[in-house]
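Database export, one record per block. Field names are fixed; values are copied verbatim from the stored entry.
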Amino acid sequence: MQAPERVVVRFEGDGAGEGPLSWGQTENWLAIQRQQTWLPLGGVQPLPPGSTVDGVADELRYLLSRFPSLRTRLRLTAGERPTQVVAGAGEITLEVVDAGDRDPGTVAGEVHDRYRDTDLDFTTQWPIRMAAVRSGGELTHLVALLSHFALDATGAAAMLAGVSTRDTSPLTGQQPLQQAQWQRSPAGQRHNAAALRYWDGILRTIGPRRFPEPVTRTSPRFWQGEFTSPELHRAVRTIVRQTGVDSSTVLMTLYVAAIGQVSGIDPVAIRPTVSNRFRAGLSDVVCTLVQAGLLMVHVADTPFDELLERTRRLTLPAYKYAYFDPDDVGELRQRAAVDIGCFYNDRRGPNREQDLNAAESAPGNGAAPAGLRWLSKQDAPAVEPLFVHVDDAPGTMRLTIQLDADYVSPTDGERVLRGMERIAVAAAGVTPHP
């Protein structure tokens, strides 16, 4: 493959300035340091016929001119939290890669992997990488990766909405610099103090671990798998209809119940990820706001319907206090010497409840096979101790699991997923398919 053509794209926009990180940025920066990855989001998509280099460059220019989080770099000082520096103008490089006689989709995949696996210098580089692949003189694919430090899933949706209309009206909502300013105001500090009281009350209650320490070590250490279950889909749909409780809370209750059964540790404490978009001025800001809250539930000998209502009630304060200064919470956790590495993340789209009622996927129609498939086993980059994500999969239920085998064994990770399915089927009174 010949060397890519490098097109310099200049941009300028409002909101320049510098200041401390917001809480959402701090949470992501800590994850970047812990996992030793720049947390890239995005991928490869086909370009419509007739796309031009100038058109792609103009889209890249629009993104950086429009959204301050995409023209944010960091200033690092030893021993201190980074300072965010939002530029008023600058330039970025768009790569144009010629596929030659090779399949352009394959070439785009290679560019994607190169972008993903190349470290990002947050002090000198922008948190976005973009390339266009050309074949036979025509652009065929766009490769775009952005750091989670700059935006979360809701921020990405808002960004794409802006791109589709090329909206140039003044931005609304608090940008990260403004968020950090509010968080350090008396009102922000009062909220943070209340969150710390909530966290401290739980950290003083629970034991040091969420799972017994594995008897043996597994190598490679970090595992990722995908669990697909029509049975779980059917049972959750029935429970939602019977109780009126939303499917995310039902699934979180199943997760709590399964962890309790597999670990034998009670109460169960998990960290549900919370969008924080329900807060004033934050609904459609292109930035990262997601933080992992803390939920503690007593599980032992509790019927599922009672456990569901208990979890539903306890999620309200857990969500409210998932907006906090990560440095302060980190100090609390360090003093308490408590590990709370069980995460839950419902990353389905806004139509999740409607999709729950979709017809079940027929085997052989492109649906993923039922059961658990381990997709990767690696020693780097690191992942959280246990993370279960709920993903969009109309007509079935798809859970993605990531685990650190030094914390929870792959066998116990699978037992959690199958336990969620078994508990759901029993609670719903659904007869499993043979």
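Remark 1: Residues 200 and 332 are 7 Å apart (CA to CA).
Remark 2: The chain has a mean pLDDT of 94.
End of record.
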